[in-house]
Design brief:
four-stranded antiparallel sheet, 9% strand, elongated
Length: 623
């Protein structure tokens, strides 16, 4: 593989990059023991693989030995008996090669089975662990990082098991068996052959490292050149270049970078060319040296017992040891990368699960679905408190609205009720019981949320609705859709409930997605309803349909609403003004206008605009 191709794969073979050296994992007994724990359940299969590798190493030796015997038979030239012996040796060599290949297939099959079973175990463990992580984990971590740990990193374990581990055992056995037979044949020729191995190995490692440095520099320049192309030849970029008459300067800049790339690439290719010439000479010289020295021994008969066939075997075994020795010299690189891979996986598995079931979870009757916040404090970062002591009480069946400026902590308040987060201080009670004492599944099954960020899975409408209640009847589904004002729309679709909504529901409009999410909550039939209204960006028809649906499901249900609409605020049994993490005022709309400057300012800056906007829409509809 060319260095540029290795670069595209990310890491050079044979040595660590500077970044890998800086991030090199600390090798500890605990880390090794933890890795081995995943392999322990399959120890007998590993022993079977290692046994197969041992037999394969021995069988791999035989073709070279048999070749030596064939050469000696030909040199001896003993008539018909020699021909029979020659035929037997050729047949034996064929049987050995066939057996070795069959054994190799068996070893690869078992090895693949082991690695896939370990990956299966790790994937299940990782997915189960991530499912239990608090909501803050998913808001803080990049989705790409989560997917990489879940897929790429765990899949990489397969190459560690079937590649790195097997390679170490196989190469070690090959070198050991070959070395033993070399000394068994002729200790002086063995020392000569092994002494020449560094001539084949070390120049390759040196030139590979040198070429990698050149390719790395070239890649940096390629990235710089690509960035300029992307920026200046895009629609917006090209317009900017033209408007500021920068065509010539951008061309010269590109020309200079392109020149540097060309010079470095030529330098790298020249280094590679001379290297291949030198290596070709070395590779040809090593057998010649062995043949020359061995030939002197045979001609002068200075060392009895050494034959032409023996010299042939020695040359073959030295060539056979070349690649395994190279691989063994790279063991520390493969080992460090393998440990780094496991360390990345363990870093996620070691993340603390802060929100979990109590030792004795409760599932109290929630007929009294009142909600009470008692001096609740919360912070994502201890240095920046979000809620600084929230207290309020929502009686059963009442609808309370929370209003406040962006960043006041409204979404945090509603996220604490189903324990997407946990309070730092204070407690939240539902039906008089602290939410931390509830069975987590029972608690969340009795709370319904409709948020601004409507999320639908890439499946059918029916599958998305059944996510709320798997055993729902068709009648229940239709009734829920009618309550949510989405039933008539679904009936107009060719596939009706079997219509595929696309990734995140992209095949539907914002209003259609929102109404399906409302139908899903209706189907869940929660005791407590939490709404973060999201109708401001919708058209007037969708907004009206959604508002009607929300009014229906809030009837006789304990509801807490983050209000964006004045009509919702006016319908609330009580309004809570949240400012800088504290509820500063509560009361009706009119009361708050009289006694709260903060609410009055909010009304003037936000809600009055909404009123005027709604009036304008109504006027246009009438016209």
């Amino acid at each position: 593989m060319r260095p540029m191709e290795r670069l595209s794969m990310g890491k050079p073979r044979g040595f660590l990059t500077e970044q890998e050296k800086e991030q090199m994992p600390k090798i500890t007994k605990g880390l090794i023991k933890r890795i081995l724990a995943y392999m322990l359940p399959y120890k007998w299969y590993f022993l079977l693989v290692f046994a197969a590798l041992g037999v394969s190493a021995a069988l791999g030796l035989l073709p070279s030995v048999i070749t030596g015997k064939i050469v000696d038979t030909i040199v001896a030239g003993t008539g018909n008996s020699g021909i029979n012996k020659l035929i037997n040796l050729v047949v034996l060599a064929f049987l050995v090669v066939a057996s070795s290949q069959i054994l190799s297939i068996l070893e690869r099959y078992i090895n693949s089975w082991i690695s896939q079973k370990i990956i299966y175990d790790m994937r299940n463990e990782m997915y189960g662990h991530l499912q239990k992580m608090p909501h803050s984990f998913f808001t803080n971590e990049k989705q790409g990082d989560i997917i990489t740990r879940m897929n790429s990193d765990i899949n990489g374990v397969s190459s560690v098991i079937s590649g790195t581990l097997t390679s170490i055992v196989s190469n070690s056995l090959t070198v050991a068996v070959s070395t033993f037979y070399l000394f068994y044949t002729d200790w002086r020729m063995a020392i000569l052959g092994i002494g020449l191995l560094p001539v084949l190995v070390f120049p390759t490692r040196y030139i590979s490292k040198k070429r990698w440095k050149l390719v790395s520099i070239a890649q940096e320049k390629h990235d710089e050149m690509n960035q300029q192309v992307n920026e200046t030849l895009s629609v917006s970029g090209s317009m900017l270049v033209k408007l500021f008459t920068k065509e010539n300067s951008e061309y010269n800049k590109f020309k200079n970078i392109n020149n540097e790339v060309t010079k470095i690439t030529v330098k790298e290719q020249r280094a590679g060319s001379w290297f291949h010439v030198a290596m070709g000479m070395f590779i040809q010289s090593v057998p010649l040296i062995i043949y020359f020295v061995g030939g002197l021994f045979v001609i002068n008969n200075s060392y009895g017992g050494l034959t032409v066939g023996d010299i042939t075997v020695i040359v073959a075994l030295i060539n056979r040891m070349n690649m395994p020795v190279r691989n063994l010299l790279d063991i520390h690189v493969s080992f460090v990368r393998s440990l780094a891979l496991f360390e990345r996986i363990f870093e996620y598995l070691d993340r603390k699960i802060d929100i979990h079931n109590p030792e004795n979870p409760q599932s109290p009757d929630m007929t009294d679905s009142s909600v009470e916040f008692c001096d609740v404090k919360f912070a994502y970062d201890s240095a920046k408190p979000i809620l600084k002591g929230i207290s309020f009480y929502v009686p059963k069946g009442k609808m309370y609205a929370i209003v406040g400026t962006s960043g006041a902590g409204k979404s945090t308040v509603i996220g604490l009720i189903p324990r997407l987060y946990d309070t730092v201080e204070g407690n939240i009670r539902i039906s008089g019981v602290d939410v931390k004492d509830y069975d987590l599944s029972y608690l969340r099954s009795n709370i319904g949320m409709v948020t601004q960020d409507t999320y639908l899975f890439n499946g059918t409408i029916l599958e998305n609705l059944l996510y709320a209640k798997e055993d729902a009847t068709l009648e229940e589904i239709e009734n829920a859709c009618k309550v949510a004002n989405i039933y008539d729309f679904i009936m107009t679709l060719p596939d009706k409930f079997n219509t595929v909504v696309g990734n995140r529901g992209l095949k539907l409009s914002g209003g259609e997605k929102q109404r399906i999410s409302i139908a899903r909550v209706v189907l869940k039939d929660p005791k407590i309803l939490i709404l973060d209204e999201a109708t401001s960006s919708l058209d007037s028809i969708s907004e009206s349909l959604i508002q009607t649906a929300l009014d229906r499901i809030m009837q006789n249900r304990t509801s807490i609403v983050i209000a964006h609409r004045l009509s919702t605020i006016m319908a609330a049994d009580n309004i809570m003004l949240l400012e800088n993490g504290v509820i500063t005022q509560t009361g009706s709309h009119d009361e708050l206008l009289e006694k709260s400057e903060g609410y009055k300012e909010l009304y003037e800056t936000q809600f009055r605009k909404v009123i005027e906007y709604e009036k304008e829409k109504s006027k246009n509809n009438i016209d």
